[in-house]
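Q: Predict the bound structure with fructose -6-phosphate.
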Amino acid sequence: MCGIVGGISKNNNIVPVLISGLEKLEYRGYDSAGIAVINDNKITRVRSVGRVSEIKKKVLNKKLKSKIGIGHTRWATHGGVAEKNAHPHISNNEITVVHNGIIENHTHLCQLLKKDGYKFKSETDTEVIAHLIHSYYKKSNDLKNSVLKATKKLMGAYAIAVADKKTSEIIVARDGCPLIIGIGKQEHFIASDISALLSVTNKIIFMEDGDVASINEDKYTIYNSEKKVVKRKVHISSIKQDQAELGPYKHFMQKEIHEQPVAVADTIESIIDEASISPKLIGGKNFDATKYDSILILAAGTSFYAGLTAKYWFEQISNIPVSVEIASEYRYRNVYTPKKQLVITISQSGETLDTLEALKQSKKNKNLKSLAICNVQESAIVRQSDYVLYTRAGMEIGVASTKAFTTQLVCLFMVALLFAKQKKLLTKSKEKDYLSDLRKLAGHIQSALNLEPQIKEWAKLFGKKTNALFLGRGLHYPIALEGALKLKEISYIHAEAYPAGELKHGPLALVDKNLPVVVIAPNDKLLEKVKSNMQEVKARGGELFVIADGDSKFDAEKGIRVIRMDRHVGILSPIVHTIPIQLLAYHVALFKKTDVDKPRNLAKSVTVE
Ligand code: F6R
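A: Predicted complex:
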C-alpha cells in the first residue's frame, strides 16, 4: 500500500534507480506516481496519475538527472486519484516528502498549520507532514532535527522520506510501515522493500519503529525515538533480482502459480530435517505445544482461508480446539480468552494492519504466546510475535495471493504435525508417512498445473457470466471460498462460496442455467454427499464444473463438466485442489482482459484499516 524509493549517490544519476524502483514497487499501489530530485538548490518534481509507465515517459522527456531524489507510487487513501494528491509533496519549495501510511491526527495538525499561514494544495494527509517539518525547519535549518520533532507530533502509521533543497542528505523515519536502507559504494538508498533495490544492492538494514535515519553518499546514521544513535543489523538479502522479474511469463500471477511446486518444496525442506519434524525449526526456539490448550488463528483474506483449512487439520491430527477469526473483527470484539491459548497469525506480507492490530489486541487479551506464519523477513507481524515460521514462497508480486497461500497451508499442516508429535498423538511411522506425503506434494501440484489447457476451455465459458457459485465440503470448503475470492478479485465476476450442504438452505434459489457452479469434489469420505448436492444443482438446470480426483468414480455428462486431478492425496488434498481454482481465475481474467496483477481498487499489503 504505497511504495517509497530514494537514493543519494556521489557519482551516479539516481533517476534510473528511482524509476526502476517504482516499477518494482508498483504492486504496492498503482493509481499515481511521482519523483522529486534536487539540483542547484532547487527541487524538481514530476508527478502523474496512472501507472509508473506514465511517469517514466514524463521523466524521459524532461531528461531529468540528479544525484539525490525520492519517489513514490500511490494507492489513494486521503484524497482522490489526482495529480495534486500524488507524492512527493512539497512545502514552500524547500522540503519534499513521500509517505506510506495514514496520519490519524492530520485534521488537527492541518488546522494548526493553516493558522500558521501554510496553504494546502492537496487533499492528502501527507502534505501535513511536509508543512509540519517545514515549520521546524524554517527556524533551525536543520532537516534531521525538524523530522525528529515533527514525527513526535504524528499519530498513526508512517514511513517517510524527506529531502530539502540544499543539503545532500535524505532523512527517513518509520513507525508502523516498512522502510529499509540499502548500502552501496559511495551511495545509499531507501525503499519500502528490497525489490526496489535489487538492481543496486543486496546489503540492507530493516529500520525499526520509531527510528529516524539520515543517509548521505558516504554514510548512514540511525537514531531511535530518544535521538540516540543506534546500530541495526546489516542483512545480505538472498532474494535474486530475477525473482522480481517476469521472465518468460506474461503476468506475475501466472509466474507465481507456476512457481508453486518449488515454493512448496522449499518450504517443506526448510522445516523438516531428514526424517522428522523438530520444534527448533520454529524460529530456532524451543517450542512446546503441550503448554497450550487451544489455538486462535487471526488473519485476513486469503490468509484467513488458510487458517480455516488449518482448523480441520489441527482438530483432526492434534486434537486441540481451534478458532479462526477475521483479524478486523477480532480487534473490536469482547472475547473470552482461554488461559493457555496460542495465537497464530498468518500473513504473506507481515504488514497487514488488521492482522497486526489483532495480534496486539490478542496480547492485551492475555493469550499465552504468538506464532507468526509469514513470507516476509523482519516484517512488523514477525517482530511482534514470540515465534515465527517463514513460508519460503519467495517474493509474491501479483496482488492476488497464490503461492503464499499454498505455502501457508504447508506450514500450518506442519505445525499441526508438531502439535500431534509433542502431545504424543503421532507414532514414528505415521510421522514418516506424513513427511513422505509432504515430499510428494510438489509432484502432485505439477500434475495439477498440467491441467491448464482444460481449465482454459472452462474459462471461455465463465468469461461470459456475471455470477458464479463455488461449493466444497469439509477440508475443501475453505478452498471453495478461496476460489470465489480469486475469481471476483481479478475477473470482477461476482462469486460466492458455500459449504455444499448449505445449498438447500438458501443459495439453491440462485441456481438456473446461467449460473456456473464450481464443485470441489475430491475422492474423500464426503464425496457421496457432494454428489447428492450436485444432483440438486443439476435438477434445477445449473451448469456444474467439477474438480475431481482421478479415482473419483463419476463421469462427465450433460450439464456436468469434469476435470480430473491425479489420484486423491488424502489430508493434503486442499493444497492440490487449490491449483485449478487459481488457474481458473487467472484464465477468466485473461479472457476478460482485466489487469491480472493489479486488479482495480486493490493493492498488495493492506496497511490501512
Ligand atoms: C487475496 C489477497 C488478500 C490477502 C489479504 C491478507 O488474493 O491477497 O486477501 O490475502 O489482504 O494479506 P496478508 O496475507 O499479506 O496479510
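A: The longest strand covers residues 95-103.
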